[in-house]
């Protein structure tokens, strides 16, 4: 998985508000189990990648794990001890905007106990609350 997009129209976006419930990507498409977000927040590439590695460790390499989110929003930060003004800060991180109801991971697997254990270890790596959803 790539850590940032190849090309954007604007490099630095405004922050906006992260309110409401997810309207898109809130149902299972590819698998029969999914990890769904309960609250809103941001997930950066390191969190997504560590959760993916935890899933691969539990399921094995041959099983299909689908990641439904991508870090395409930029977070900027000004350096320490810099006065206000003089433009927007430098890029510090790429994040994915998470709203309640969005499905983060999907997996096609048949043993629910293994899926439950794997999604628990993956949710420990994320900074938001999650739950398991299924068909």
UniProtKB/TrEMBL annotation:
<dbReference type="GO" id="GO:0003735">
    <property type="term" value="F:structural constituent of ribosome"/>
</dbReference>
<keyword id="KW-0694">RNA-binding</keyword>
<dbReference type="Pfam" id="PF00252">
    <property type="entry name" value="Ribosomal_L16"/>
</dbReference>
<dbReference type="GO" id="GO:0006412">
    <property type="term" value="P:translation"/>
</dbReference>
<dbReference type="GO" id="GO:1990904">
    <property type="term" value="C:ribonucleoprotein complex"/>
</dbReference>
<dbReference type="GO" id="GO:0019843">
    <property type="term" value="F:rRNA binding"/>
</dbReference>
<keyword id="KW-0687">Ribonucleoprotein</keyword>
<comment type="function">
    <text>Binds 23S rRNA and is also seen to make contacts with the A and possibly P site tRNAs.</text>
</comment>
<dbReference type="InterPro" id="IPR036920">
    <property type="entry name" value="Ribosomal_uL16_sf"/>
</dbReference>
<comment type="similarity">
    <text>Belongs to the universal ribosomal protein uL16 family.</text>
</comment>
<dbReference type="InterPro" id="IPR000114">
    <property type="entry name" value="Ribosomal_uL16_bact-type"/>
</dbReference>
<keyword id="KW-0820">tRNA-binding</keyword>
<dbReference type="InterPro" id="IPR020798">
    <property type="entry name" value="Ribosomal_uL16_CS"/>
</dbReference>
<dbReference type="GO" id="GO:0000049">
    <property type="term" value="F:tRNA binding"/>
</dbReference>
<comment type="subunit">
    <text>Part of the 50S ribosomal subunit.</text>
</comment>
<keyword id="KW-0699">rRNA-binding</keyword>
<dbReference type="GO" id="GO:0005840">
    <property type="term" value="C:ribosome"/>
</dbReference>
<dbReference type="InterPro" id="IPR016180">
    <property type="entry name" value="Ribosomal_uL16_dom"/>
</dbReference>
<protein>
    <recommendedName>
        <fullName>50S ribosomal protein L16</fullName>
    </recommendedName>
</protein>
<dbReference type="InterPro" id="IPR047873">
    <property type="entry name" value="Ribosomal_uL16"/>
</dbReference>
<keyword id="KW-0689">Ribosomal protein</keyword>
């Amino acid at each position: 998985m790539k850590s940032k997009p190849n090309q954007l129209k604007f490099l630095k976006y405004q922050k906006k508000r992260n309110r409401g419930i997810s309207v898109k990507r809130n149902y299972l498409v590819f698998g029969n189990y999914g990890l769904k977000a309960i609250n809103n927040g941001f997930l950066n590439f390191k969190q997504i990648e560590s959760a993916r590695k935890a899933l691969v460790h539990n399921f094995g390499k041959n099983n299909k794990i689908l990641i439904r989110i991508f870090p395409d929003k930029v977070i900027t930060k000004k350096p320490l001890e810099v006065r206000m003004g003089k433009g927007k800060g430098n890029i510090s991180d790429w994040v994915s905007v998470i709203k309640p109801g969005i499905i983060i991971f999907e997996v096609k697997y048949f043993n629910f106990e293994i899926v439950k254990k794997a999604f628990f270890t993956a949710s420990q790596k994320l900074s938001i609350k999650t739950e398991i959803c299924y068909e």
